[in-house]
Write a structure and sequence with these properties.
With 131 residues, the chain is α+β, with helices and mostly antiparallel strands. The chain is built from two helices and four strands; from the N terminus they run E-H-E-E-E-H. It has one domain: Double Stranded RNA Binding Domain (2-Layer Sandwich).
């Protein structure tokens, strides 16, 4: 898993046998996400094979990312399982980057604060002015 983060990675297969190489590939792709965002608590990846789907979308990769704040869900389809995992990792990475950008923009916005009591009047020394 990740040395810096104790996030949980769950990989499951639906109508698909998970080979050790596929599990390793998912883990390598997830490492990139864990490096970019340290507040990830859990990443659940579901890999699904549906032979009745059209050829271009037989393999589906679904990701459920639990972070501090709203959880993120993404789903992609492809003709190869490894390609679907790569597309899913890219999509989740873009979602995390967008989330970080929104938080940075929100941090620099001014927002009004309501005080429960009125401000006391102050006296400027030497001028005789009060505010």
């Amino acid at each position: 898993m990740n040395r810096h983060n104790n996030a949980e990675l769950i990989v499951s297969g639906i109508h698909l046998e998970l080979t050790p190489s596929l599990k390793t590939f998912v883990q390598e792709k997830a490492e990139r996400l864990f490096r970019h965002e340290e507040r990830i608590l859990r990443l659940r990846v579901e890999l699904e094979y549906d032979p009745k789907e059209k050829f271009a979308a037989r393999f589906k990769a679904k990701g459920h990312l639990v972070v501090n704040g709203p959880a993120m869900n993404a789903s992609v389809g492809s003709d190869e399982c490894h390609k679907a995992v790569s597309l899913l990792a890219d999509k989740l990475d873009r979602m995390l980057a967008r989330r970080a950008q929104l938080f940075r923009a929100r941090r620099h916005q001014l927002h009004a604060v309501e005080l429960g009591v009125p401000l006391p009047k102050t006296i400027w020394p030497g001028s005789g002015l009060t505010t």
